[in-house]
Amino acid sequence: MKTDNLSEKKSVAGWSVVAAVFLTGFKLIVGILTGSLGILSEALHSAMDLVAALITWFTVRISDLPPDENHSYGHGKMENLSALFESLLLVITCVWIFYEASERLSSGQTHMEISVWSYVVVITSIVVDYTRSRELKRVAKKYNSHALEADALHFSTDIWSSSVVLIGLILAQFGFFAADSLAAIMVGIIVLYVTYKLAKRSVDGLLDRVPDDIYQQVIQIMQAEEKIIFYHDVRVRASGADYYIDVTIHLNPELSFQDAHAISDELESLIMDQIPRSKVQVHAEPDEQE
Known about the structure:
Elements: H1 2-34, H2 37-63, H3 77-107, H4 116-143, H5 146-173, H6 178-206, H7 212-224, E1 230-239, E2 242-251, H8 257-274, E3 278-286
Parallel strand pairs: 2-3
Antiparallel strand pairs: 1-2
Helix pairs in contact: 1-2, 1-4, 2-3, 2-5, 2-6, 3-5, 3-6, 4-5, 5-6
């Protein structure tokens, strides 16, 4: 099962690399020929997507490796680290876009040559990005992969940014050439917004911030168990696609050691059944109030 997971994740990540190579080259050629800053900014955006896709492809090969003596919690944090690095790449993209757009607007050098290829490359980009983002989201959700989710976010962002560039091209067709630079700025704003969300999730994962939805699910399971008198020290941490859950429960002190152990095992199995890819450890104590 683990091998099948890795195979599908590697496959979808590999095709994302191919798509990014194609889009980067196509946009770069058309952008240079037309002088469109909007398309050139999209080419740089796709180039960053290519780097991000390569990082994701490399990451998914490592993140599902089993724990070893040097990584007792596995290698899942590689996914969070990968997503954070992709955020930094997006910030670099935005800095270049804002700089070039402001230079063109301030100097008045906004003229560009628009051809049918300008529209072909943008529309092709939207179609490819839509296809890749859907597939990446599907596999990311299936395996709870933060790296694939980050890659899907890159391609989803391209859909919006390419749409903005398309609008800029249409306005430039009617002589409003400054619209191209303004479209590039809009691309940068969209990318920055997505980058903030991606970086925040990555940092939360690296700092072991408690996943709210998983934490509440654990609490609901605990509250439904009548054999538990009291529980405390519920700890949940995410490491890539895996969740590590610890909890202390208080039981009737008259229970035998075997019965208390059986209840703990039953609770661990229940949580692992309801929360996929979770590793659970339950510590049982006799309740002093009994």
